[in-house]
Amino acid sequence: MNELHLQRLNEEPFVGATWNPANLLSLGRLLATLPLAALILLNTRWSLLLAALLFLIMAVTDTLDGRLARRYGWVSNIGIFLDLTADKVYTAATLISMVAIGILAPWIAIVIIAREFVVAGIRSFAAAEGMVIPADRWGKHKMLITIIAIVWLLIAAGAGMLGDGSASAGPAPLFDPSGPLRPLAWLMRLGGWIMLIAVLLTLYSGYDYLRKAAPLFRR
């Protein structure tokens, strides 16, 4: 067996490990960001409902790829990079697109996105100092509530049921909000309150990261 053959055998497992299903899911999530943003910016009934579905699928793959990587030993540097990058990119793009069509207050997007930058900076600084700050339950709760809030708001906007006048140029109401389906209209409008809960969790989880990293700043 010549040296070239040995080299190829050594390279093949690397290629397979790099482009495994977990990493492909992360890459797919990153590539799906553009059509997701485009659907939201179209601001039609079906584009917003499709955006809600696509965002939900992307959020599910966000959990799935990590479990696959840990279960089958597919953890790699490129996988970690793709996972972390895709999460931040598609979430930020979604929030900014929602602000652009008037279904989300700008300050909410700023708070959530700024927190991601701050936490990423803290974790990078901690890693450089030999300290690992893992994701905690508050960060996970924040992520779950944010996903629910985004999907809820997109569905409500697609149904024309935001009820605050912010999406006047968007789809017309799917049904009369003062008619027999009034409870459903009221339920759809809860998305804004769920998003406020997500913001509170965002602020607290950011504070929790700062608290854990505080000893590093005293050195």
What does this structure look like?
There is one protein chain. The protein has 219 residues and is mainly alpha-helical. It is 77% helix and 0% strand. The protein contains nine helices and no strands. The chain starts with a helix and ends with a helix.
Order of helices and strands: HHHHHHHHH
Number of helices: 9
* Arithmetic mean pLDDT: 82
The domain count comes to: 1
Summarize the structure.
By secondary structure, the chain is mainly α.
Provide the fold topology.
Layout (H helix, E strand, L loop, with lengths): L2 H16 L2 H11 L1 H10 L2 H28 L4 H24 L5 H23 L8 H22 L23 H7 L2 H27 L2
Helix pairs in contact: 2-4, 2-5, 3-4, 3-5, 4-5, 4-7, 5-6, 6-9, 7-9
What descriptive keywords fit this protein?
9 helices, globular, disordered N terminus, mainly alpha
